[in-house]
Amino acid sequence: MTQPVTPGLVIVDKAGGITSHGVVGRVRRLAGTRKVGHAGTLDPMATGVLVLGVDRATRLLGHLMLTEKAYDATIRLGIATTTDDAEGEITARATAGHLEEATIRDALARFVGDIEQVPTAVSAIKVDGKRAYAMVRAGEEVELAARPVTIHELVVHDVRPGELHPEETVDVDISVRCSSGTYIRAIARDLGAALGVGGHLTALRRTAVGPYTLDHAKTLEQLEAGFAVLPIAEAARAAFPSYELDAGQAQEVRYGRRLALALDELTAVFAPDGEFLALYEPAGEAARPVAVFTG
């Protein structure tokens, strides 16, 4: 007899070279259900935290996508590419070996805070109904509008001669904590442009999505050996403020009704027995349901 699927999150430490869709496919097989989704993709080159939802928990993903994320990355100055990373074709070269470390650090410091960022041209953003990356691959010119993003923190760990052409390129290791929708590749591109030498990413590792870090993540090989799902109640408590309801309030939630609660932000509400019931948000002096997970 097939065991019922446990609704919850699967935190994957994605390896390089596999697409996020490929990871979803593997987890669908392991979970025994097609109802698996992700809270934001990673490029094939990138590694690290990929948050997947199983069964009812897929409805949490849209809310998790809005949380901040953290990355470790290596920028190579002196070479620009079509994709702003190492997988693209080289479009320009310029000697970067003359750049002083202080100059590079000062330039990166200007990215911290609320900024307007033009997404990378090979993003999944739609232009006239078509994905930008598909247009680029088809040889079309793509112009994307700048979007507001927030770089909460940008730490420079190392500035050194590049592994490729060390006399001409410079590699910069950074860590970034940023809002959802920020493109780390665009930081590499814009840093190179600001310094007049071009730049692209040679490595990208996502270290956190909201509260979920590499400490919570398992590789696909580890999941093959022992499939693990973070139960939906634990996932909700980790990601959102929580509120414990009484029996009467819990029944109102099951009907999808408003509650006479004063909430400050999107909040996970729980039945007296600990069951996760719904996400509620402030609505004047009351609270209204955003997503109900019962039934």
Automatic annotation (TrEMBL):
Residues 240-293 form the tRNA pseudouridine synthase II TruB subfamily 2 C-terminal domain. Residues 185-226 form the tRNA pseudouridylate synthase B C-terminal domain. The keyword S-adenosyl-L-methionine does not apply. One of its GO terms (molecular function) is tRNA pseudouridine(55) synthase activity. The active site is at D43. InterPro entries: PsdUridine_synth_cat_dom_sf, PsdUridine_synth_N, PUA-like_sf, PUA_sf, tRNA_psdUridine_synth_fam2_C, tRNA_psdUridine_synth_TruB, TruB_C. Keywords: Isomerase, tRNA processing. Pfam families: TruB_C, TruB_C_2, TruB_N. Responsible for synthesis of pseudouridine from uracil-55 in the psi GC loop of transfer RNAs. Belongs to the pseudouridine synthase TruB family. Type 1 subfamily. This is tRNA pseudouridine synthase B. The lineage of its organism: Bacteria, Bacillati, Actinomycetota, Actinomycetes, Propionibacteriales.
